[in-house]
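ok here's DUF6104 family protein, seq below lol
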Amino acid sequence: MYFTDRGIEELAERRGEEQVSVEWLADRLRTFVDLNPAFEDAVERLASFLARDDSDDPDA
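and the structure came out like this:
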């Protein structure tokens, strides 16, 4: 288990039943980077990874 898995598990436990929009997620990521600029590169990589995930696209 990676150290980051704890945060992911907490997210799933606390918010696992919720449905959120991509717009909401983008806003939360922007707020996080505003508060934690040292993590800008990591958030950029995560956002790009999520934006390019085409595994659910039947035409990909």
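fwiw Residues 22-35 form the longest helix (14 residues). kinda neat tbh
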